Amino acid sequence: MGELTAEMVEQGRGRSPGRERRRRLAQDMRTAREKLTSSTGLQRAFDYEFLRVYAEQHRRSSLVVLGIAAAIATVSSTWLPAPMAAAWFAFMSAAIGIQHSLSRGFAEADPTIVSLGTWRRRFALSDLLLGAIWAAAFKELAEVPGGTYGFALFMGVMVAATTAVLSAAIPIAVYAGITPLALVALGLLGLTRDFGSAILAVMTSAALVCFIFLGHRLYDSTLSSLRWRAERDQMLVELEEAKANSDEARRRAEEANLAKSRFLATMSHELRTPLNAIMGFSEVMKNEVFGPHSNPAYREYSGDVHESGQHLLTLINEILDLSRIEAGRYDLSEEAIQLSWAVSEASHMVAMRAKAKGQIIRDLIDPSLPRLWADERAVRQIVLNILSNAIKFTPPGGEIEIKVGWTASGGQYVSVKDSGPGIPEDEIPIVMSSFGRGSLAIKTAEQGSGLGLPIVKGLIDLHGGGFQIRSRAREGTEVIVTFPSARVIDALPAVDIPRGPPAQAA
């Protein structure tokens, strides 16, 4: 089984900083390389998408453009000779067919090997050819006397608008398609002598410039849309990758947690067996069951061995309890208990230790509290851990106050407040962490594993209750645990059994 490292866990939550920097660097290098090989300064994927949009729009609108050309040729035949109009329509049909074939050819080409620059030039030349044929009809109609000047200008504006919309994905194609029309419009402006016609020619030229600007705006809008879509696709890829990393990290964490549980179970058995022998024999030697020691120091050493064994056994039990809580395998054996009795019993158990240090324990316990639905062993361990910490860090002659009562929400609470040196606010998260010890415990060399408060927090969480520490340096410490109102067993009212009439004697 592979080892679960911090980097794997970080990958499960997201990307590690080093991995993120490498990914961005690789992406920047790939983007720069694609820009260097692109003729427009964009990524190749964007260049290809613009050409694809151009080809798709022209392929779908070929019949529409052909219909417009047929309508213009039909109307133009009223002013121009019919053979001339038919020839113009034939040239226009051929140009539209060429453009349609180019669009289909690009759609069927392999995107990975297609030459984008070559196809861009082909499309621009096809637009130039169409623009020249449109410009020829524009010129012929404008030069026919008899009121065709306005129709010719209208045709030029309509063709320019169509070109700007259909070819906006390739700006050079917009220039190629509108330039012939603009040249004809400028030529008519220079040749006309009528003021009204000159005004129309000027307006037509201005409209052609506006359509070129419109083509640029459509191009920018398409570019923004493509960039947004690319960012969205990249985000989806990153989310999928992050999910895969998270699943892998979770799998490894579950395997590591299972291995930890097996290790603790095995080591618990292997450690407790010799430890029980050590504690048993040391107790026999300490109590001089088989006779006094020849040297009184041996009895003292035996007592030290016995106390050390008890401390080690307590540490093993605390580690096992915490591991079961964290793994969600601590099963509560719930029953109806009296919280005040459980607290009084725990207080009695630690009273000798407090008396040895000259400490006073004050009990403010409400004996009328109803019972709780809880695990008695867990509740006793909660109270013992809190009281042991209070006795440990309260100086000789200090006071410890225990309160048991109602909470504002209808639950019950246990409060243990001491007159010790207190805990600095910045150290509260430390003492709440597993194996965490505050600066006071380190300075005074107090024995302890740093697991008491985390176990209390875990056990009270299993009961759905709350845990709170109120402390400041040199002002003492108050630890409060609360049980929710849902665990309070209310006294049931007496059942009123109606009495019937007295039975008649037989």
Automatic annotation (TrEMBL):
<dbReference type="InterPro" id="IPR004358">
    <property type="entry name" value="Sig_transdc_His_kin-like_C"/>
</dbReference>
<feature type="transmembrane region" description="Helical">
    <location>
        <begin position="173"/>
        <end position="192"/>
    </location>
</feature>
<protein>
    <recommendedName>
        <fullName>histidine kinase</fullName>
        <ecNumber>2.7.13.3</ecNumber>
    </recommendedName>
</protein>
<dbReference type="InterPro" id="IPR005467">
    <property type="entry name" value="His_kinase_dom"/>
</dbReference>
<keyword id="KW-0812">Transmembrane</keyword>
<dbReference type="Pfam" id="PF00512">
    <property type="entry name" value="HisKA"/>
</dbReference>
<feature type="coiled-coil region">
    <location>
        <begin position="232"/>
        <end position="259"/>
    </location>
</feature>
<dbReference type="Pfam" id="PF02518">
    <property type="entry name" value="HATPase_c"/>
</dbReference>
<dbReference type="InterPro" id="IPR050736">
    <property type="entry name" value="Sensor_HK_Regulatory"/>
</dbReference>
<keyword id="KW-0902">Two-component regulatory system</keyword>
<feature type="transmembrane region" description="Helical">
    <location>
        <begin position="148"/>
        <end position="166"/>
    </location>
</feature>
<keyword id="KW-0418">Kinase</keyword>
<keyword id="KW-0472">Membrane</keyword>
<feature type="compositionally biased region" description="Basic and acidic residues">
    <location>
        <begin position="10"/>
        <end position="22"/>
    </location>
</feature>
<feature type="transmembrane region" description="Helical">
    <location>
        <begin position="198"/>
        <end position="219"/>
    </location>
</feature>
<feature type="domain" description="Histidine kinase">
    <location>
        <begin position="266"/>
        <end position="487"/>
    </location>
</feature>
<dbReference type="InterPro" id="IPR036097">
    <property type="entry name" value="HisK_dim/P_sf"/>
</dbReference>
<dbReference type="InterPro" id="IPR003661">
    <property type="entry name" value="HisK_dim/P_dom"/>
</dbReference>
<dbReference type="InterPro" id="IPR036890">
    <property type="entry name" value="HATPase_C_sf"/>
</dbReference>
<keyword id="KW-1133">Transmembrane helix</keyword>
<feature type="region of interest" description="Disordered">
    <location>
        <begin position="1"/>
        <end position="22"/>
    </location>
</feature>
<keyword id="KW-0597">Phosphoprotein</keyword>
<keyword id="KW-0175">Coiled coil</keyword>
<feature type="transmembrane region" description="Helical">
    <location>
        <begin position="61"/>
        <end position="79"/>
    </location>
</feature>
<keyword id="KW-0808">Transferase</keyword>
<dbReference type="InterPro" id="IPR003594">
    <property type="entry name" value="HATPase_dom"/>
</dbReference>
<dbReference type="GO" id="GO:0000155">
    <property type="term" value="F:phosphorelay sensor kinase activity"/>
</dbReference>
